[in-house]
Amino acid sequence: MTRRAGLFWGLVMVVVGTLFLLGNLGYIEFTLGTLLSEFWPIVLIYIGARMVSATYGSAAGATVTEGIGDEPAVFLEGETRLIGRYFLGDLVLAVDRPIEGGVLHVGLGNIELDLRRSGAAEGHQVLACLTRVGNVRITMPEQGEWRVEALCLVGDVTVGRDSRDGIAKTVSAESPGYGAADTRLLVRVRAGIGAIVVR
Question: Fewest Cβ atoms closer than 10 Å to its Cβ: which of 83, 109, 113, 145?
């Protein structure tokens, strides 16, 4: 099972389980008949979303991008700003050049970002990575100065060796020379429900 399929079916199970629980407790009227007669279109929506996302391919400068959204997550030739917004899907990128910040946003899905061979372009650069439901995994640059500020509303946050779980947990870390550096990268990571891992 792919990660996207696992995310989809996991969310379906959470929603259906919640509906059955609320029905059993008497808060709503919900039965198996209701599920089959009223919620079956969700399967068609999922299949359609998969078909649409299959038409998106990798674009110039990106290692892998797949999702359904407004714009592909890529660097175009000669550009150094990273932009990507998807409603549904995983965003997986390996960046091999200095970046001028940017925004990566996924509604339902994961963000995997490998910055080991990257760093900041000149000046103070800010990169925001956001997901509503899903996980974020970032590998920070091997060279240069950086800072990470990570917040997960519900789930686990791990930055380096510092790890916290629960509700509204924040973890931050920075490289030793970040405060005094002229060229530096600030990575702000936010997840609604999921996990954040930054190494």
Answer: 83
pTM of the model: 0.65
pLDDT digits (tens, 9 = 90+) for 64-112: 344 444 444 455 445 577 777 777 778 888 888 888 888 888 888 889 9
- For tokens 């899905």, what's the residue? 109
- The domain ranges of the chain are 1-55, 58-198
β-strand partners of 197: 137, 158
In angstroms, rounded to a whole number, what is the distance separating the alpha carbons of residues 180 and 153?
Answer: 31
3 state DSSP class of 175: coil
Each residue's pLDDT tens digit, 38-59: 777 877 777 766 655 544 433 3
Which residues on adjacent β-strands are paired with residue 187?
127, 148
Would the pLDDT of 6 be above 80? no
Q: Which helix (H) or strand (E) holds 57?
A: none
Task: Tell me the pairing of strands 64-65 and 145-159.
Answer: unpaired
Closest by Cα among 110, 125, 118, 1 to 65: 110
Residue identified by tokens 């089959």 is: 36
Give the distance from CA 197 to its chain's centroid.
11
Q: What 3-state DSSP class applies to 96?
A: coil
Q: Are 7 and 46 in contact (CB under 8 A)?
A: no
Query: Around 109, how many Cα atoms within 13 Å sit in the side-chain half-sphere?
Result: 27
Q: Which residue has the tokens 């960046």?
A: 95
